[in-house]
Amino acid sequence: MRIPAHSVCTAIRDDIVSGVYERGSRLTEELLARRYGVSRVPVREALRTLESEGFVVTRRHAGACVAEPTVQEAADLLEVRMLLEPLGAARAAQRRTEAHLKVLRGLVRLGQERARRGEGEDLRSLGGWFHETLAQASGSPGLIALLTQLRHKIAWMYAVEQPARPVESWAERGAIVDAVARGDAERARALTAQHAERSTAEHRLRRPDLPGRRTASVPPVRSSQHGVNTAGVRH
Length: 235
Description:
Order of helices and strands: HHHEEHHHHEHHE
Region (Disordered): 192-235
Structural class: mainly alpha
Largest sheet: 2 strands, antiparallel
Organism: Streptomyces pakalii
Shape: elongated
Domain HTH gntR-type: 2-69
Number of strands: 4
Keywords: DNA-binding, Transcription, Transcription regulation
Radius of gyration: 19 Å
Protein name: GntR family transcriptional regulator
Distance between the termini: 15 Å
């Protein structure tokens, strides 16, 4: 069965984000095809997509390589996120469905329960699902794609610490959902902007020893030896 290029793209992207492929390392079509059990055609298509997203660059005499973003590029991502997430929330207040609200309220309820119990690992996943669902509720395919790409790249470049007051953080998310449910676009925008600004302080570069003023490429993160089962690739 032919594995589609978007599944191969997801698998390679996930491996880049998790550090399986170090920044600056070569990505040869032959080795990638062998790793994921596919032909070189979907690999070639996947590399083109990843290059357009900024995860891969093509170098003369070297071919496709994992990109090496600078400290400034990493900082820019957080700034762009603070602009786009409030827009997404405002759109969600105008376009959300009852299904979106049900999921958002359920995530807030779970998040508040886990926060009170101090279950930090669960909170990371729930937070990601919350913001993904909020973006989906915007009803804007272009905006959803941009926010999804931002989340991938931020996860690649930053480690995210648990908020000092997780219960309050989830209360903020609950207030955002209330504004979305009422159709109050401006309040949803303002609350999301405040939440995004506070959460920015929880992000740490994967190499915190790098001075922020440097423009040298961020060094590679530690690589992993774990393989990827493409049968479990998200679609």
